[in-house]
Design a protein that fits this description.
binds calcium ion, about 675 residues, rod-shaped, six-stranded mixed sheet, TIM Barrel, alpha/beta, eight-stranded mixed beta barrel, binds ligand C2E, 18 strands, Alpha-Beta Plaits
Length: about 675
């Protein structure tokens, strides 16, 4: 069965071909853009071709036909060219582009008809040459125009039909074979041109579509990148934030510090770094629990956050430590005032639910360019000033000064030399006897570290032990000294005992304490003749761990003495919670006790407290006969101090105890 031809479908296809597509805004814009570039050329072709034809017919055809009509048309062309040129410079919307193209499409037919009519109207006036010029005009113009309308297919098709049909008829009417051939030839060339144009237009559209796809992909990629950037910004924000206090954290402190330092050193501006540490925070953690400790940190963080302005940035560095960076006005006076204001807000009471507590803040500050060769250096100096603030004036502000600079330099030097030291060759012990007050006999010796550095000379343990504690070398030093002390103590007659100082680090972990136990066991020395001395700082960080470490030592039979009693914080709390056997009352209470009745009273209270708790006591630092007399009067049992003996070399200590033993036997 033969298929029926659907004329309606054909009709729709033809009308589609002759219409400007309106279903793709980006295509409209691309067409507009490409076509607007061709518009001047299009009118140039039209006007010059027309002028040439008018010129060859001048004097033959009527004036209005060769002058008035072409002139008026040229003017119109000029106006339209200028109009398009202006429009090209302004950004058009897709709708506007479509509208313009549509007008051009509508005008294409009438303009083509007009030009064709005009040129055909000239035919009767010319001779064969001039008629040939008309044919040439038609051919060259239609081809040129089709070229220019390459991006506006519909208009090109309309022009082709409107020009070629009358042109062919005109040529056929002339009847001359050359004209007939020319007419047919131009029609065929036009058809070929249209075929090329159709292919070009299809390619143009496809290119445009793939560009659209590419643009859509790029948009999607941009959107994805934007989302990823937002995510990574958020991650960065969280990574730089302290989750508890919501202040900027330690990591961002050092980042800011480096950036601010670079800026300050390049611009010559001042920069101040502050480090705040809370006093009395650890006891709150111990007594009220960690949740209460967290509440304190959150509240303090909240109060400090109010200072985050005028060049001040507050950070939480970790634990109960906060950092401050200050740019702009950095005079000592203004920083001291700022520091005091910070300490004041910290000191306000805090409700932790189960009670109202109070902490205070110590603050160390370092100012660039007064000190500091780098951001890190500046921070270390602020930290050192904090250390001074805590040590000498709790709850106060200390600005790093030249005295501290010298101390810090010395510390760095000692640390350097200690790290490279041959500990076996350079370390030894001195032994200070502990005397029984009544009998005035030595009952034991406290082993005291001595370091003879070939570079620095004799360095006091009060200087190098804290440094070794700071850089972690203390573990090794303790083990070497303990082994040495036990060897020496085994030369003493029983029951003379060894008192040995432990550092916080030595009891800080189960591993560390087990290593101490192993040394004691290996020595074969009776553990009941060992007393370990610990200070409050050793137990304050982790009371639980300290208690379990000390319980282990007690289970071996060793005694535990709390050293420097009375100088620390919340001492009574620790006395109560640790498995202690005795207390060493600090030398500061003994100094001039004969002239200070208050000190005598304190010692008396401590003694009665200890006797109630079943703890032994030793009073340290007895230097004069007068002090001794007061202590004797109070009822002190055991004493230690320069008045009796300075720390002695090992062999002198041994001689002392052996001769005492001998005199005892004689007696
Ligand atoms: P400490 O444990 O309180 O030791 C007592 C210190 O006071 C010793 O100083 C001792 O020489 C000194 N001293 C004793 N009697 C008197 C006196 O009557 N007047 C005065 N002014 N001082 C007196 P040293 O030997 O310089 O030790 C200082 C600190 O270094 C010790 O204080 C202790 O904390 C630490 N240390 C010493 N040896 C060791 C050790 O082997 N391990 C650890 N971890 N620390 C040690
Ligand atoms: Ca001691
Ligand atoms: Ca002491």
């Amino acid at each position: 069965m033969q298929e029926k031809v659907d004329f309606r479908d054909w009709g729709r296809k033809v009308s589609d071909l002759l219409r400007v597509p309106n279903n793709n805004p980006l295509l409209s814009l691309a067409q507009f853009e490409a076509f607007s570039k061709q518009v001047p050329l299009l009118y140039f072709i039209l006007v010059t071709n027309m002028a040439a034809l008018a010129w060859t017919h001048a004097g033959k055809a009527p004036f209005w036909l060769v002058v008035v009509v072409p002139s008026a048309f040229s003017l119109l062309c000029l106006v339209r060219t200028v109009g398009w040129a202006i429009r090209r410079r302004t950004k058009v919307t897709a709708q506007e582009a479509y509208r313009r193209l549509r007008i051009t499409n509508i005008l294409a037919g009438p303009i083509a008809a007009f030009c064709t009519g005009w040129s055909l109207a000239l035919l009767p006036y010319g001779d064969a040459h001039q008629q040939a010029h008309v044919a040439f005009f038609m051919a060259i113009t239609v081809i040129g125009i089709i070229f220019c309308l390459m991006h506006l297919r519909s208009a090109a098709l309309i022009v082709s039909v409107v020009v070629n049909v009358p042109f062919l008829i005109g040529m056929l009417v002339l009847g001359e074979p050359t004209f007939i051939a020319t007419g047919v030839n131009v029609v065929l060339v036009t058809i070929a041109m249209i075929a090329i144009l159709m292919t070009h237009y299809r390619d143009f559209r496809q290119l445009n579509e793939s560009r659209q796809v590419l643009m859509a992909q790029q948009d999607a990629l941009h959107e994805q990148n934007r989302a990823m950037q937002a995510l990574s910004n958020e991650n960065l924000r969280l990574a730089n934030l302290d989750s508890l206090t919501l202040l900027a954290n330690r990591r961002s402190f050092f980042h800011f510090l480096e950036t601010a330092f670079c800026h300050a050193s390049a611009s010559g501006e001042k920069l101040a770094v502050g480090v705040i540490d809370l006093d009395g925070f650890k006891p709150i953690n111990d007594m009220y629990g960690h949740a209460a400790g967290d509440k304190v940190l959150v509240e303090v963080g909240h109060r400090l956050n109010d200072f985050n302005k005028d060049g001040v940035t507050i950070f939480r560095l970790g634990g109960d430590e906060f950092g401050i960076l200050k740019t702009g006005e950095c005079s000592e006076a203004s920083l001291a005032a700022l520091g005091q204001a910070l300490c004041d807000v910290i000191a306000d009471p805090i409700n932790v639910g189960s009670g109202v507590v109070q902490v205070t803040g110590s603050l160390g500050i370092a100012i660039y360019p007064d000190v500091g060769a780098s951001g890190q250096d500046l921070y270390e100096r602020a930290d050192y000033a904090l250390y001074a603030a805590k040590r000498f004036q709790r709850a106060g502000v200390v600005i790093f000064n030249t005295v501290q600079a010298e101390t810090l330099n010395r510390q760095k030097r000692v640390e350097e030399v200690l790290l490279a030291a041959d500990l076996d060759a350079e370390l030894h012990l001195a032994f200070q006897p502990i005397f029984e007050m009544v009998t005035r006999r030595p009952v034991g010796f406290e082993a005291l570290a001595r370091w003879n550095s070939p570079i620095l000379g004799a360095v006091s343990p009060a200087e190098f032990i804290p440094i070794a504690e700071h850089n972690g070398r203390i573990g090794l030093i303790t083990r070497k000294l303990l082994a040495l002390a036990l060897v020496e103590a085994s030369n003493w007659p029983s029951p003379v005992y060894l008192s040995f100082n432990l550092s916080p680090h030595d009891i800080a972990t189960p591993e560390n304490i087990l290593r101490i136990v192993a040394i004691v066991e290996k020595s074969g020395f009776d553990p009941c003749r060992i007393s370990f001395e610990i200070t409050e700082t050793a137990v304050i960080h982790d009371l639980e761990q300290a208690a379990s470490a000390l319980t282990l030592l007690r289970s071996l039979g060793c005694g535990i003495a709390l050293d420097d009693f009375g100088t620390g914080y919340a001492s009574l709390n620790h006395v109560h919670r640790l498995p202690l056997s005795k207390i060493k009352i600090d030398a500061c209470f003994v100094k001039n006790v004969d002239q200070r009745p208050a000190s005598a009273q304190i010692i008396r209270s401590m003694l009665s407290l200890c006797s109630e708790l079943g703890l032994g006591t030793i009073v340290e630092g007895v230097e004069t006969e007068e002090e001794l007399a007061v202590l004797k009067n109070i009822g002190v049992e055991f004493v230690q101090g320069f008045h009796f003996s300075r720390p002695l070399p090992a062999n002198t200590a041994r001689d002392l105890v052996l001769s005492d033993m001998a005199s005892q036997q004689v007696a």
